[in-house]
Please model this.
Amino acid sequence: MRRQVRGRPGRGVAGRQRTAYRLHMDFLQEPPRLGNAYEADPLLREYLARTLPPAVLLAVEPELRHLGELAGGHLARMQIDDRLSEPRLVQWDPWGRRVDAIEPTPLWREAARLAAEHGLVAAPYERRHGEHSRVHQMAMVHVLEPSMDVYSCPLAMTDGAARTLLDLGNQELAERAVPRLTSRDPATAWTSGQWMTERAGGSDVARTETVARRTPEGWRLWGTKWFTSATTSEMALTLARPEGNPPGGKGLALFYLETRDAEGRPNGIAVNRLKDKLGTRKVPTAELALEGARAVPVAGLGDGVRNIAPLLNATRMWNAVVAAAGMRRALQLALDYARRRVAFGERLSEKPLHLDTLASVEAEAEGAFLLAFRVVELQGRVEAATATEGERRLLRVLTPLAKLTTGKQAVAAASEALEAFGGAGYVEDTGLPRLLRDAQVLPIWEGTTNVLSLDALRALAAPGNVEALAGEVERALAGVRDEPLRRASDAAARALGHARSWLAGARDRPAPREAGARRLALTLGRAVEVALLCDHAQWCIDRGMGRRAAAAARRLARQGVDLVDPDLDDLEAGLPREAP
Ligand code: MFK
Model:
């Protein structure tokens, strides 16, 4: 039982004890502080200076600075103060009506307002900065996201839903939903869900059991969705099998539904419960029963998996940006702390081993950032119709590579950052453990590392796509002249060459090709990261902007690029099936 302590602080037994405690143990550790999240991000600022035309940079910087101030100040404080609140499911109203309302946390309500007002979904659709509009959008996301308690989840799905409705050319649905999904007015802005996962499969979506029935009032859906993120949305895109269709992904159809009717009543959708998850605790993830929900087919009555692919690719791009953003936040905190924390007579920021550890995280973070933003650049060019055929192919291959590579890097970086705080990193009210919990979802949702590795294989199998990827590495390395950078650029080129010859050798050996797919994908992802980092570092060197990126490139290369296992026979044998 907790002891009641009477009296005012500083008086009585408790007060005397506190005084004595102070007399004998005076040391109190300064917590880490965040400054302006934009100002404190040298790579983001260099990158924007390198890739944006000067007029665009001039136009977007004031807003990024403002968001950086919010992210490092008001929102970060709110995040810590609001640490314990979680979304709440209210299933019944006081008079017995089923309402299934989900109350988000206060920070989520604030994030929703900010996201709409700053156009975190709208920017690439308004296209004020042409093909650079995606970079503008994701720069804002990169700055703000670590202080939004994963409000990026509904934003990513909303962006993906808008993209999908536009790509599939359903004019009526696009006209109804896209202006709301991309609204800058918090009062009218919608978010969208992406309801795919069922008990039969999160990865093997083709096993979807939800049934679509044509009724006199239109299509209705029956089934259970087992893992629907951010279930506060006004609409969702979902998969269901029209009655009579064959099994498999081709027999599924993509449906649009609105979650409530004009009076605000649930549209034949019951929220069974919220999930109790390791992380993303602020994201209201639900199990849903569809009990005759009214829905509209988006693009015919088949090919559901193929039709939902634009949504998958958009959220995978977001995932990579969010991974990079989380790594940057973890580093900002760890670096600031190292300047405050004294141990063994010196600040941690003067300790060679501690610095070496943080530099290793920094190298991974810089590679992750450049890979994620290369996908963003390409997406922007495709949307603005300025991409070449080669760039379209490159985008298809880089999207799964970026998602899977950065997801793994984000978990490792968060774990290392927590360790940099010692025990404090393991204590909840520092706000630090959340970094690791929220990172752990990144390699899981939107396709696990293995599923994404298989998607990368599928993408590489299309004619011309391997060449598009190789061309990207060659392009990035072509301008590298700095001698110390050579080792890194050679490592990237060698790894790419090895991966290509492995892939060619495994062409007719499906089992070892599948067993080696993750190693192949991570090798390619890391090779592109090193190449992009070399390119960026050379740009910095040429402008007298220092050698930070060059050091990161060399270190990233030393930390390992080539993970390909050349022994196809061993790969085929796999794990020993019996104890030796
Ligand atoms: C922080 C930011 C992120 C926030 C988001 C949070 C929300 C989280 C909510 C979720 O997690 S939602 C669930 C996410 N689920 C997945 O990501 C599913 C993972 N599984 C896969 O991706 C599988 O690879 C897949 C379901 C696609 C496999 O299904 P199938 O039926 O075996 O697909 P198949 O036959 O290989 O491909 C069907 C068609 O789609 C083919 O085209 P064709 O019909 O023309 O041959 C494929 O080429 C095409 N396709 C598949 N994936 C594609 C794609 N096309 C383009 N891009 C892709 N990624």
Remarks:
- The first strand starts at residue 88 and ends at 92.
- Confidence is low (pLDDT under 50) at residues 1-15.
- DSSP finds 20 helices and eleven strands in the chain.
